[in-house]
Specification:
CATH architecture: Sandwich
CATH superfamily: Cupredoxins -  blue copper proteins
Number of strands: 9
Largest sheet: 4 strands, mixed
Distance between the termini: 64 Å
């Protein structure tokens, strides 16, 4: 089968138009950093006071026990996800009388007992950053991670990133 000149010409024009249409697509809009309200609560998991309720813990907290000079606490949520450039407005709730702290590599907040503490943090770099309580008797159990997604990943989405751990975030 031979192709006629008008058919080849139409095919060439169609290819040229489709290439031009692809080239004119606008670049995705850059991600606009948001302010996110995140609540983090300190949670006692296995503490000395529980030995009255769970008799097996007496041996665990005793000298030579697996929890000697330790208590098991956690952060809830233990994973927080934001986007690079976001500002996190933390509300820390410490409902018990033990003192805690919230420590990232470049950020530290004291969490006095039976208090609500507020602090702000700007997620300047993408990556996964561990956080912990720096009280020696709460280590190595009381920890979590801040996941900071690169802003370029969110470019053009028009929507904020999700947050693991069930926390909600509100753009402002």
């Amino acid at each position: 089968m031979t192709t006629t000149r008008p058919t080849r010409l139409l095919a060439g024009v169609a290819l040229l138009l489709s290439t031009a249409a692809c080239a004119r697509r606008p670049a995705p809009a850059p991600y606009v950093p948001r302010t996110r309200d995140i609540t983090v609560t300190t949670v006692p998991l296995l503490v000395k006071e529980d030995a009255a309720v769970f008799p097996f813990l007496k041996q665990d907290f005793a000298p030579g026990g697996v929890l000697e000079n330790k208590e098991v606490y956690g952060f809830s949520p233990s994973t927080i996800t934001v986007v690079q450039g976001d500002t996190i407005r933390f509300t820390f709730i410490n409902p018990e009388d033990d003192v805690h702290s919230f420590v990232l590599p470049d950020f530290s907040v004291a969490l006095p007992g039976q208090r609500v503490t507020h602090a702000a943090y700007v997620a300047r770099r993408a990556g996964i950053f561990p956080f912990k309580c720096s009280i020696p008797t709460h280590l190595p159990m009381m920890w979590g991670q801040l996941v900071v997604l690169p802003a370029r990943v969110m470019a053009g989405t028009g929507a904020p990133a999700g947050n693991a751990g069930g926390e909600t975030s509100r753009g402002r």
